[in-house]
Amino acid sequence: MTDVKAPAPEARSTGTVLGPEFATGSGPWLYTEDGTAWFDGTSGSGAATLGHQHPAVTAAAARQLGRLTHTGCKLGSDARTRMVRALGRISPYDDPAVLPTTTGAEAVESALKIARAVTGHRAVVAFRHGYHGKTAGALALTWRASFKAYSGPATGSVVRADLPDPRRPGPDDARDFAAALSAALDEADLLGGTAAVVLEPVQVTEGVLAVAPALLDEIARQAHRRGALLVLDEIYTGLGRAGRMFTAETMTERPDLTLLGKTLGNGFPVAAVVGERHVVDALPAGVQTSTFSGHPVSCAAAAAVLDTVVALDLPARSRALGARLGTDLAGLADTHPWISAVRTAGALAAFDCVRDGLPDPARARAVLRAALDGRLLLFGGGPEDATVKIVPPALLDDEAYRHLMNGLAAAVTAADSWSEESL
């Protein structure tokens, strides 16, 4: 007989690290088996933008589960077609093509293959503080050479450039960045030509670091002058989470490829690459497939998400939530001087903890631990591990919002009295 109290044999690398074991969820709330409520200020790693168990999404998935669960990557389904068409309709492209994937990391891999197919180049420019997933190397073990033609840049063919830090803006940021980006592209061009420049318009994982639209346009112009594609990784920010349906709306230039995930499934595993058809279809048939891409249940959920995002004007809801968060976090900073660099981007927010003007990771840990003691789930991080991130579902009613801010205020106040030795 199995001892239910014994530790589960899950690997340390994937094991859960925050809070108890949850049994049910609703909106911003997660519940343990005994009904104890926890407020999820992480939105399930940013995916549950509409809240846990959103009724329209859950109902769509349940209906699909009763009809058709799986087809495999080379057989179609009506659910897959609905999702692809809905995403194409709202995309920023004139003649869009949608490449479904299962995960965001898979979407990134797919975009790189597309970029190499379009350009014939190999190298990629990425940016400091960027995060694009954790997959690499599987194709190195795969036998068939034709599957590898557009994959895996050779060692040393990824060039990293620095973005201006929005927490510490300088008067010459734009000029200095333009020069630094040009130098990075020069370096990439010497490594087989630049296939793509890849970035997140808001670097959420490393602390909600937003890239100004003018800088995005500068990146696009420089990439295009080199014959490279601009790939916007909107897996975290797209479909309204950061206050716009797509960041392309804020730009003069247009990204060649947009990557979506997280909000797209609202908790179901689905992601996608979207771009003009002549760009996306440069990748030959069969080069990018996976068993669960375009999974009918996930696609049915995603189609319901897209309908809901449009019907509720989620971008506007996110902007309103961000404005409220910005005001209230600024108020906390007024009474707790160690709170620094409050920043928001739609329904994404963060602040840094400092001591004597320097990053204070211990204080950030104190806030996160005090929040956990109050059954408020928050993530930290940031370049210096001194950031507290607030990423709640975007559809918060007033009562839920007050609970979030009261819990955060209590955690910040508790952190005032926590000593570094206690952490």
Q: Can you walk me through this structure?
A:
The mean pLDDT is 93. With 423 residues, the protein is α/β, with parallel strands linked by helices. A hairpin with a 5-residue loop joins strand 8 (202-203) and strand 9. It has 11 helices and 18 strands. Helix 10 (361-373) crosses helix 11. The protein folds into 2 domains: 24-53 and 313-422, Aspartate Aminotransferase, domain 1 (Alpha-Beta Complex); 68-311, Type I PLP-dependent aspartate aminotransferase-like (Major domain) (Aspartate Aminotransferase, domain 2).
Layout: helices, strands, pairs:
Elements: E1 24-26, E2 29-31, E3 37-40, H1 43-46, H2 55-65, H3 78-90, E4 96-101, H4 104-119, E5 123-127, E6 158-161, H5 173-189, E7 194-199, E8 202-203, E9 209-210, H6 213-225, E10 229-233, E11 257-260, E12 271-276, H7 277-280, H8 296-311, H9 314-335, E13 339-344, E14 349-355, E15 358-359, H10 361-373, E16 376-377, E17 379-381, E18 387-390, H11 398-416
Parallel strand pairs: 3-16, 5-6, 5-7, 7-10, 10-11
Antiparallel strand pairs: 1-2, 2-3, 4-12, 8-9, 11-12, 13-14, 14-15, 14-18, 17-18
